Amino acid sequence: MTTRPHDALFQSVFESPAAAASLLRELVPPAVQTAVAWNTLDGTRASFVDAKLTHRHGDLVFQARLTIARSQRVYFVVEHQSTRDRTMPLRILTYQNRVWDRFVKAHPRARLAPVIGVLVSHVRGGWTAPRALEELFDPAVMARPELAALVPRCSIVVGDLAQLSDDDLASRPLGTFAKLALWLLRDARDPVGLLDSFDRWIPSMLELGRTRAGLAQLKVLITYMLEVIDPVKLDALRAKIRTLGSGSEKVAMTIAQYLRNEGRREGLRKGVEQGRREGVKEGIRRGRIDTLRSTLRSQLVLKFQTLGAAYEARLRAATPRELGRYLKRVLTADSLALVFDDRPMRH
């Protein structure tokens, strides 16, 4: 479980340079398509800290060589948005400045490299917010050429998923995992739309499930669906997911096991919440420390597959207070290291 399911899905798919290249070359203008050596696209660090130590994050940042000048490179800052933000051009400009700052430090004598801002929007109803920095200024100001000439130019390449049909998505030259992820980003928060379009994507999901790696990716997609669907439609979605099993025994076994695990996770989540209400001390008083330890171990193995000797030893040696802290973290932590972080939790 994650508190940012859209981020988790988007990054799990498009942090791969190959998937990112397939997406980006479809979104940028034709002249940019031909100017980039897409086979050289590679990821780079996406987090920046400014002078005031304010943390800012560009979802994904890539760099590639240019075909028009092979000694030069181009950067792509890739954002995705599930809600409208009229200041998005300013945000992109902020990310661009950080890339340029880092570039100048690494190449003090070089000319600046282009930094292209790309937005993948899954805003309901489509992206209607500004796409260029000048749109944030008063039109009366921009109507004066002498003033407009002094305003920085910053436009965003927008991939608007709300404007793409199922056939549009299916025809994109992307991998199956990427197409399914874009479909879910577009539809999963609309329960009716998701259920209506589900059958159209069953063949793609079955295709994905033919390999071991694909089955793992299918679990990522199912996890996302279950996390963002309106609870009112949860049972209907589970029924739809089970229909996948009729097309593949391998997929059927995977889904059956996954849904059983998902049910256990839900039960455990409720148990942990109940434990929070009762308090760890009350659990200790009732002689339930071993149960807490066993419950935590089950959740850790379910989420991270294996503990390893070091973390198993940490679990066995954990004090009651530490067990309580780990139980609170296991639902949202993205790694074992974050679960077992010994720093006090912030409230």
Overview of this protein structure:
By secondary structure, the chain is α/β, with parallel strands linked by helices. It has 3 domains: 5-163, no CATH class; 187-278, no CATH class; 279-347, no CATH class. The protein has 18 helices and 7 strands. It has helices spanning 5-14, 17-27, 30-35, 88-106, 139-142, 145-148, 166-171, 176-187, 191-198, 202-208, 212-228, 234-243, 249-278, 280-285, 289-304, 308-317, 320-329, 336-339, and strands spanning 36-44, 47-49, 55-57, 60-66, 73-81, 115-121, 156-160. The strands form 2 sheets. Strands 1-4-5-6-7 form a 5-stranded mixed β-sheet, sandwiched between helices. A two-stranded antiparallel ribbon has the order 2-3. A hairpin with a 5-residue loop joins strand 2 and strand 3 (55-57). Helix 1 packs antiparallel against helix 8, helix 1 packs antiparallel against helix 11 and helix 8 (176-187) runs parallel beside helix 11. The longest helix is centred in the C-terminal third of the chain and has 30 residues, at 249-278. 27% of the residues are buried. The model is unreliable at 49-58 (pLDDT under 50).
What would you say about this model in short?
Helix content is 55%, strand content 12%. The chain contains 18 helices and 7 strands. The strands form 2 sheets. The chain has a 5-stranded mixed beta sheet with strand order 1-4-5-6-7, with helices on both faces. The protein has a two-stranded antiparallel sheet with strand order 2-3.
List the helices and strands and how they pair.
Layout: H1 5-14, H2 17-27, H3 30-35, E1 36-44, E2 47-49, E3 55-57, E4 60-66, E5 73-81, H4 88-106, E6 115-121, H5 139-142, H6 145-148, E7 156-160, H7 166-171, H8 176-187, H9 191-198, H10 202-208, H11 212-228, H12 234-243, H13 249-278, H14 280-285, H15 289-304, H16 308-317, H17 320-329, H18 336-339
Parallel strand pairs: 5-6, 6-7
Antiparallel strand pairs: 1-4, 2-3, 4-5
